[in-house]
Input
Amino acid sequence: MKIQLSEEAVPIQTLDNPILREIGMLSRIIHSKCDLKYREYQLQKGQFIFLTRICEHPGLNHIQLSNLLKVDKTTTTKAVQKLSGSGYVRKEKDASDSRAAKLYPTPRALTVYDLVIAVENAHTATCLQGFTPEEIRQAGALIERMRQNMESVWQELKRPKGADNE
Output
C-alpha cells in the first residue's frame, strides 16, 4: 500500500532561536567523547558527572546531588548504586537522618577524578579556542544567566503533584 502525501504547503511552527539546539549538540558531543573515554574505567554513560560532584562535595546526600545536577532522584539513585558497585562511592548513614546516606568518594574515585577534570579542561579549551578572555567571561556569564532563568522550571518539576502553587 502506497501512501500519497499532499503537496500542499502545511504551515509549521518555526524556531525563534536555535541556541538551545547548539547547546544540546555541544553537550551531546562532549558526553559521547567522555562516555567512550571513561568506558575503560567502568564508568557507564553519564556517570562521570555524578562522580565529579561527589568528589567535589564529599558527604552530600542523594537529594543534594540531584539538586546540584538538576536530575531526578531516581536517576541519581541508579547512578550512585552503579558507582558504589564499581568501587567509586561509599555510603555512610546520616546521623541526623536515618533514611539518608552521605556519599563519599573512594581513593579509586579520586584517581579517576583527576583524569575527568583534565578531560573537562581540554574540552573547555577546545570549545573556547579563538575566544578572547572577555568573550570567555561573557559566554560564562550569559550561560549562567540562562541556567538561572530555568531554575524556576526545575523547581516546578520537583514540586509534588497536587501541591498548591503558593
